[in-house]
């Protein structure tokens, strides 16, 4: 019996070995998992340690304060700061500390309250006393927000004076930044503004918000293993600066020229028409100044403008009664209207400023040689269309060369050119010059014109091709036309327009250089040279004389287009020009939308309005850029005196063109196209 028991208790070696193998296997798996876990922890620590440290720190609420970053500056081409962030301070009351010291040093509460009330006018003494008595253990109460550095420094200086030393407790300052625009309304729609929280709303502030913003730091406290308070600070990383091609001096010249013209025309109109509405100015006036050889924007301005330091103020545009009657949605709509950048967001029919493009595409493709002549009899009966499309001169210009057709802004000749150019070539070159496409300028809100130009199929209707040839029945933007025009005069190179040329860190060290971007070539240098001569003739002897400046060779093209609906006698007039002719360094494009709100007929239909503004811009910008004049010193002095006299209130020159009757028109090829109107000189 005992032997049988011993036999039953004898261990089974096979089972033991199997169990041992399983245990070793489990042990091995556990060891491998531990190795993987340790490796993973080490990897996370190495690659993302800072990230998780920040997450942990952000969750600390014991003696923890944020150190705000400083948003980067916006700086012009010559180092002038156009937008910056200045430090301000919140005044914080720590009731617990103040009351605790009152027990040690009687009278410190009274001394502290008196000094705070004396240094900060916006802080109410009674409110402060109530907070101290009602919430004695409170450690964070904001007494005042965004006090200046000077106010804060004055308080600290008085705190350490012999009179107050050892009597002031429980007051500390929390630093933050506010956005400041030293030049107020200068280039407002282009620069844009940033709201609280460093959120860029419009313009460059919006486009480059992530570049301008930095990373907040933090000061925080925690208890270590010995239950002692440890203090740790992670410094804030300030944002980068953006450096612009925009020049504050040229921008000022342009804005003054625009404002002076609008103010001057208002005064003249109101004096001559005392019984008429006092709103002659313009609906919009805008100007674009570019370097045609790089695509850099030197100035971008518009009228009316707004103050970047108070961008939501509508009092300059509406009476208080009007504002009180508006809903919040209506006010927001009005704000969005004044915030829009006319140069990139508004679309319009370009009128005769498009004519150089038509001529250039004909010359580039060889269907025009430059030796052609055209007979203008005052209008063109387009095949397949029942009515005569009139020229600006209904009596006709007679026999004209291409140069004379541009100089006289002859619609008749341009329509005849369109027949040999053809729909396919015309549509193709519109695309080559960038029409119907966004330019890619580094601003938000650029309008799309893809649906606002005719397709090749549409242009097969001869009337559409004919009217497009002189800039009617399709839309463009200022930046689009200005960029394409630059390629006509710079040798055929289409550059992407841009404002930012460099990004620097908070210490001024270069982070990134932004070089000009060549998108494509449009025409040959030979055709470009021909076009420069043609456009020079427009200013020296044609419709663009008003834009000329003594001592400088300037080329350009005028434009006048009646707005839809046709027949309402509301016009958009323009001038685009460049200088000097032999080596263009600057392109100036001016648009005046409804030059005379409330005025009708001939009061609006004159490109001379835009030319006067362009003339003043050229007259001041060319010398500033170091472009030498051919005048003697005496002649320059006389020209400067004349310019000063004009700036002080010379009357606006009246155009002499008889305005043709407006005709119904739209983009529908079955409707009558409107006739371009130009000043006839």
Q: What do you see in this structure?
A:
The protein is an alpha+beta fold and 681 residues long. 39% of the residues lie in helices and 18% in strands. Strands 2, 3, 4, 5, 10, 18 and 19 form a seven-stranded mixed beta sheet that branches. A hairpin with a 5-residue loop joins strand 8 (217-223) and strand 9. Helix 10 packs antiparallel against helix 22 (608-624). The protein is globular, with a radius of gyration of 36 Å.
Strand percentage lies at 15-25%
**Quick check: average pLDDT?**
86
Number of helices: 23
Give the terminus-to-terminus CA distance.
139 Å
The best one-word shape is: globular
Helix content: 25-40%
Low-confidence stretches: 57-62, 649-681
Main sheet properties? 7 strands, mixed
Radius of gyration: 36 Å
Structural class: alpha+beta
Q: How many runs of DSSP E, i.e. beta strands?
A: 23
How are the secondary structure elements laid out?
Blueprint: H1 2-9, H2 13-58, E1 65-67, E2 74-75, E3 81-93, H3 95-104, H4 108-119, H5 125-134, E4 141-147, H6 149-159, E5 171-180, H7 188-191, E6 194-195, E7 199-200, H8 203-207, H9 209-212, E8 217-223, E9 229-234, E10 241-244, H10 248-272, E11 284-290, E12 297-303, H11 320-325, H12 328-339, H13 342-345, H14 355-365, E13 373-376, E14 379-381, E15 388-390, E16 398-401, H15 402-407, H16 411-421, H17 423-432, H18 456-459, H19 462-469, H20 478-489, E17 493-495, E18 500-504, E19 510-513, E20 518-521, H21 525-541, E21 555-562, E22 571-579, E23 586-593, H22 608-624, H23 633-647
Parallel strand pairs: 2-10
Antiparallel strand pairs: 1-8, 2-3, 3-4, 3-5, 6-7, 8-9, 10-18, 11-12, 11-23, 13-16, 14-15, 17-20, 18-19, 21-22, 22-23
């Amino acid at each position: 019996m005992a032997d049988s028991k011993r036999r039953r208790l004898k261990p089974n070696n096979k089972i033991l070995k199997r169990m041992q193998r399983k245990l070793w296997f489990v042990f091995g798996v556990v060891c491998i998992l531990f190795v993987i876990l340790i490796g993973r922890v080490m990897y996370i620590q190495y690659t993302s340690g800072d990230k998780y440290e920040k997450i942990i720190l952000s969750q600390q609420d014991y003696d923890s304060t944020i150190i705000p970053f400083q948003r980067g500056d916006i700086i012009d081409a010559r180092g002038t700061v156009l937008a910056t962030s200045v430090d301000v301070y919140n005044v914080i009351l720590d009731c617990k500390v103040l009351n605790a010291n009152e027990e040690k040093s009687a009278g410190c509460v009274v001394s502290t309250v008196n000094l705070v009330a004396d240094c900060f006018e916006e802080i109410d003494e009674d409110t402060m006393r109530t907070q101290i008595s009602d919430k004695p253990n409170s450690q964070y109460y904001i007494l005042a927000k965004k006090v200046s550095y000077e106010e804060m420094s004055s308080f600290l200086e008085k705190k350490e004076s012999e009179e107050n030393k050892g009597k002031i407790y429980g007051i500390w300052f929390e630093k933050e930044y506010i956005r400041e625009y030293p030049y107020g309304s200068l280039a407002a729609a282009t620069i844009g503004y940033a709201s609280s929280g460093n959120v860029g709303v419009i313009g460059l502030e919006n486009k480059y918000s992530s570049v301008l913003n930095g990373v907040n730091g933090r000061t925080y406290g925690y208890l270590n293993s010995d239950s002692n308070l440890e203090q740790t600070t992670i410094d804030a990383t300030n944002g980068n600066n953006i450096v612009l091609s925009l020049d504050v001096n040229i921008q000022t010249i342009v804005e003054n020229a625009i404002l002076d013209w609008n103010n001057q025309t208002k005064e003249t109109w109101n004096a001559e028409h005392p019984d008429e509405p006092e709103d002659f100015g313009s609906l919009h006036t805008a100007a674009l100044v570019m370097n045609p050889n790089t695509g850099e924007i030197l100035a971008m301005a518009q009228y009316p403008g707004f103050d970047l330091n108070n961008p939501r103020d509508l009092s300059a545009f509406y009476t208080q009664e009007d504002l009180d009657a508006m809903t919040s949605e209506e006010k927001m709509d009005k704000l969005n209207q004044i915030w829009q950048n006319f140069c990139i967001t508004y679309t319009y029919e370009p009128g005769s400023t498009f004519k150089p493009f038509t001529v250039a595409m004909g010359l580039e493709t060889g269907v025009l040689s430059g030796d052609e002549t055209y007979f203008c009899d005052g209008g063109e009966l387009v095949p397949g269309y029942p009515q005569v499309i009139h020229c600006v001169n209904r009596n006709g210009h007679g026999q004209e060369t291409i140069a004379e057709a541009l100089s006289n802004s002859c619609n008749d000749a341009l329509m005849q050119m369109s027949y040999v150019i053809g729909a396919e070539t015309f549509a193709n070159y519109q695309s080559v010059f960038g029409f119907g496409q966004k330019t890619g300028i580094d601003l938000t809100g650029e309008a799309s014109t893809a649906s606002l130009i005719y397709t090749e199929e549409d242009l097969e209707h001869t009337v559409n091709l004919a009217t497009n040839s002189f800039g009617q029945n399709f839309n463009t933007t200022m930046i689009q036309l200005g960029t394409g025009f630059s390629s006509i005069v710079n040798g055929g190179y289409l550059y992407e327009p841009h404002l930012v040329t460099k990004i620097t860190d908070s210490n001024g060290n270069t982070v990134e250089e932004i070089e000009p971007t060549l998108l494509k070539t449009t025409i040959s240098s030979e055709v470009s040279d021909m076009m420069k001569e043609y456009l020079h003739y427009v200013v020296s002897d044609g419709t663009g004389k008003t834009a000329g400046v003594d001592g400088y060779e300037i080329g350009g093209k005028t434009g006048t287009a009646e707005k839809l609906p046709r027949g309402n006698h509301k016009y958009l007039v323009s001038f685009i020009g460049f200088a000097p002719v032999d080596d263009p360094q600057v392109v100036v494009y001016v648009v005046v939308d409804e030059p005379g709100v409330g005025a009708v007929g001939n009061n609006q239909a004159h490109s001379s309005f835009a030319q006067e503004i362009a003339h003043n811009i050229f007259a001041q910008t060319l010398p500033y850029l170091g472009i030498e004049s051919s005048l003697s010193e005496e002649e320059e002095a006389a020209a400067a005196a004349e310019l000063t006299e004009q700036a002080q209130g010379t009357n606006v020159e009246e155009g002499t063109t008889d305005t043709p009757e407006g005709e119904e028109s739209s983009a529908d090829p079955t409707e009558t196209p409107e006739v371009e109107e130009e000043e006839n000189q």
